[in-house]
Amino acid sequence: MTIKHYALPIGGELMETGAALDVYDKYRGRVIATVAVADRRTVDLAVAAASRAFETIRLSPYERFSILKRTSELLLREKKALAELITAETGKPIADSLTEVERTAQTVEISAEEAKRIHGEGVPVESAPGAENRMAFTIRVPIGVVCAITPFNVPLNLAAHKIAPALAAGNAVVVKPASATPLSAIRLAQLMEEAGLPKGLLNVVVGSGETVGSWLAQDPRIGLYTFTGSPEVGRRLKQDTGLRNVLLELGSNSAVIVHEDADLELAADLCAAKSFANAGQVCISVQRIYVHDRVWEPFVGLLAEKTKALIAGDPYDASTQVGPMISEKEAIRAERWIKEAESAGATIECGGIRNGSVLQPTILTGVDDAMKVVCEEIFAPVVGLMKYRDLDGCIAAVNRSRYGLQAGIFTRNAEAAFRAARELRVGGVIINDASQFRADQMPYGGVKESGWGKEGPKYAIREMTEERIVVWNLGT
């Protein structure tokens, strides 16, 4: 097997640094590529290239649209090769990787369309005494250099969710992909260059958060940071960046409520699919399911039946639904959390078996708020079920979490649905679907320790631009 080497796209050139990291096939465990690792000088050059490009290149909204639209088309042209790349570097089942490429193309296309829709609004200052002869309006202007720090679990689409809106808004970008999965972001940068993106507007640096991430956080030339990762790293990033803007998506332990009048077949189907997709390594994966005691037994039986039918293993097999976790180390950690919960009184209804980095989809009952599988983000194919009797108490239990990204509720009762929508302290409430629903054009972001700020192209562009008031004195 030929091991490909990737240099870093910086300032329109491919830069070598003298150091490289190995990228592994997460299922087969062998090296598939090497990538240049950025040193401090490389990071400085990347930010300088972005700053220079932002100051000297003025693309019209239609030019931004055209480049992004062409990128979307190129993504679909490369769908098979990109999906194979994603599966290799993440372990995601090939069917899911194909879907990720399609969604990435949609994210970029939506961003292209939004590039033509950035606008301000009129402000009626003339209604203020003494300002009768003035007219005012706002405009939205790009922030400048955007630093995008992306996670390993959805390496192409989540990179696109940061890069494409930033470019659509007229900014320049420095992106630092996760070291475990840097290949997708580098390939995206290559496709954008092929689509006509001018040199320097998109730059890629690879390295650890302790070094490359820290250097980026300290660079005053960067105007905004958009980060997806853990609350601990997000908190440190916010502290290091001071008064500059930061968008944070910091994960969750998402809850789903199965009310007494729920369609149990629908709820079990969707919870089985969305608890274990991408081996549970999605920020809005279903982790906690609160089941009304009147439907406890039939729902647990249905969910276990559907979960046992899932095929886990080789992600290159088109029939596989649950692939390996990002590393055996993470699978061992999740296995340990399962055993800790079992020792504390939980019951393993199915799963709990690990083979290397593949952890079988696992259902736990008898869990409580003190267990890590409930109160922490497990980021693994594990879901815990708890009973409830009244909706008020259930909503209070859901809200006890320090996280608040998304939640779901299954019910035929409109009053119960709207009460959940009003009272659940999360960024999104999904009715008659699981928490792990996301359409790429919708606003996406959490509350509490799940972060702040919104993704989704339209909403990200709003975050990545500044509102400026313009007041015109019309004379006397």
Secondary structure elements and their pairing?
Layout: E1 4-6, E2 8-10, E3 13-15, E4 20-24, E5 31-36, H1 40-56, H2 61-77, H3 79-90, H4 94-115, E6 122-123, E7 134-142, E8 145-149, H5 157-168, E9 172-176, H6 183-194, E10 202-204, H7 209-217, E11 224-228, H8 231-241, E12 245-249, E13 255-258, H9 264-276, E14 288-292, H10 296-308, H11 328-343, E15 347-350, E16 354-355, E17 358-359, E18 362-365, H12 372-375, E19 382-388, H13 391-399, E20 406-410, H14 414-423, E21 428-431, E22 451-452, H15 457-463, E23 465-473
Parallel strand pairs: 1-5, 8-9, 8-11, 9-10, 11-12, 13-14, 13-20, 14-19, 18-19, 20-21
Antiparallel strand pairs: 2-3, 4-5, 6-7, 7-23, 12-22, 15-18, 16-17
Helix pairs in contact: 1-7, 2-4, 2-6, 3-4, 4-5, 5-15, 7-8, 9-10
